Amino acid sequence: MGNLVDYQQQQTENSNNKMISDELLNDQIKPYSPDEDKTAQLITLFDKISAHYDSFNNVISWGMAHIWRRKAVSFLKPFSPKKMLDIATGTADMMVVMDKILKPEKITGIDISAGMMEIGKQKVAKKQLQTQTDFLVQDAAALTFEDQSFDAVTIAFGIRNLEKLSQSLREINRVIKSGGHFLIIEVNQPEKGIMQMLYKLYIRIYMLFVTGLLDESDYKYLTNSMSAFPRGKKLIQILQSYDFKLIKLKRFTFDVCSAYLLRKIN
């Protein structure tokens, strides 16, 4: 087994960008214990913070998360997807945006946290979406859907939480229809310059305001996982290794967030 650090080192050494044989494990950053299963720990974390997650995500994204979602989802509009899968659907913000912009026939949302999806179900009911929706507790590494079930798959602010990254990407590719699309939205910690300094300062100040909502370990995982997960070219190289072709890459708000639109090529 290899991890993402191993992959990044190999990509630096291997300019030909050949697919690695190891399974990529995104398990170097865990919420609580380094010796226990990451996915099980994430279920505990997200069930615990579900009532406060929307507030946390809004502030950690500088209040821009809803704008990033709308802009990124609009990338799919020319393709008119009818059946969609939203991975790490959580509190269903992506479902709400996709219903408004894309108006698909059906959106299936999956998440490992039943607690997060309970908030999502309430939100969808309140918003009275036109799209048919379904919520299922599933891990992206073990999807139960038939091959080529969806026109498009989305994951917003969740790919960095996928522990079995290789298996998850294979499963995502499997359930997307031939020529279908995969949309990823993920937050980044700016890598250099004054924006990196300002972002780190913002994180330290914000920590003072969330101590009543989140445990320190929860907060540290949510912020540290942003800087640890590959971004930009490194993430694109991984995705290409699992038969996805990049169509569009858009960076938002001084590179604090990135959206990747990919097409299944096999």
Task: Please explain how this structure is put together.
The protein has one domain (2-264): Vaccinia Virus protein VP39 (Rossmann fold). Helices cover 42% and strands 21% of the residues. It contains 10 helices and 9 strands. The protein has helices spanning 4-13, 38-49, 53-60, 65-73, 93-101, 114-127, 165-175, 193-210, 216-228, 232-240, and strands at 2-3, 24-25, 83-87, 106-111, 132-137, 150-156, 176-187, 244-252, 257-264. The strands form 2 sheets. Strands 5-4-3-6-7-9-8 form a 7-stranded mixed β-sheet, sandwiched between helices. A two-stranded parallel sheet has the order 1-2. Helix 4 (65-73) packs across helix 5. Mean pLDDT is 87; it is low at 5-21.
